[in-house]
Design a protein that fits this description.
Rossmann fold, 2 domains, alpha/beta, six-stranded mixed sheet
């Protein structure tokens, strides 16, 4: 069976930066010229470990572009309050891109699509063509994409410890719900990470109970008279925001993206240039490992 490994580049990049930030605090996350390289080092290790672990011939890393504008960003509350990318990470992103190029790993971004939507569209496209897809991320929004051919791996500790969600184990791992109910859950209870309010006064427990009985937000609204007066009022007052939050949380799966399975084939690693690049930025531990035929 053909396989594809799709990686949420922003999630992995932030994970790499913050998981190794303690090195910068100790003055160790810099190269010999004083340039920050903690994220570059950790991200490079993560990518090489993932390619080796999954042994996939087709790999793609999707990033968000700076200044990205989508239907979601038209709403001022979307991701409001979220901290801007640290300058120390901004300076490392071009280096991370170069490391991917030298590693033979394809990458993509779009001015009108979030990385979620790129991965959502490609994963469903591949799945519909009988291709098995593994998605690497720390963002649980991606759980809505799980199907018979799509598994989502949620990072806990870098990429060494991940929780794999499949069609078969999903309900047991996630509150007894199904993948297609993730967007309804976020519509009802909201999502603090994206600053989605949801329906005020209904938390996770209440949302799960409603979805267990009525399956989705639309069905809840259709059968609202069956609910208690208190719950009816909460839903009536917040239904407009709930529907909007569900829409924002829904990953696009049918965008026009000119990428085919064949175009993300893993290119041979440019070992000598990658080693030279890593040594230029004082990342000697990774360079030494590559010299011993890592991958």
């Amino acid at each position: 069976m053909k396989k594809a490994l799709l990686i949420d580049g922003n999630a992995l990049m932030y994970k790499a930066f913050y998981s190794s930030f303690f090195l910068m605090e100790r003055g160790e996350g810099f190269d010999d010229k004083g340039r920050p390289i903690n994220a570059l080092r950790t991200f490079s290790i993560m990518i090489l470990n993932l390619v080796e672990r999954f042994n996939d011939s087709h790999v793609l890393v999707a990033f968000d572009e700076k200044g990205l504008e989508t239907y979601r960003t038209k709403h001022s509350f979307y991701k409001a309050g979220r901290s801007k990318m640290p300058e120390e990470l901004i300076s490392q992103k071009p280096l991370i891109i170069k490391a991917l190029d030298l590693s033979g790993v394809k990458h993509v971004s779009s001015p009108i699509l979030e990385a979620d939507d790129i991965i959502g569209t490609l994963s469903k496209k591949f799945s519909n063509n009988g291709i098995k897809v593994d998605i690497i991320t720390s963002d649980k929004d991606f759980l809505q994409l799980v199907d018979m051919n799509i598994n989502v791996h949620i990072s806990k500790t870098g990429v060494s410890e991940m929780i794999e969600f499949t069609k078969d184990n999903f309900s047991n791992l996630f509150l007894g719900l199904n993948p297609n109910q993730i967007i309804d859950l976020k519509g009802i209870m909201g999502d603090s990470s994206d600053n989605l309010e949801g329906i005020k006064g209904i938390g996770e427990k209440g949302a799960v109970k409603l979805l267990s009985e009525y399956k989705n937000l639309e069905s809840i609204l259709e059968n609202i008279k069956e609910l208690t007066p208190v719950l009816q009022k909460k839903i009536q007052d917040g239904k407009k925001m709930g529907i909007l939050c569900k829409s924002i949380a829904t990953i696009i799966i049918d965008a026009k993206i000119d990428i085919e399975f064949e175009t993300i084939s893993f290119s041979p690693i440019n070992r000598e240039k990658l080693i030279s690049f890593l040594r230029e930025y004082s990342i000697h531990s990774v360079a030494n490992r590559l010299e011993k035929k890592w991958l």
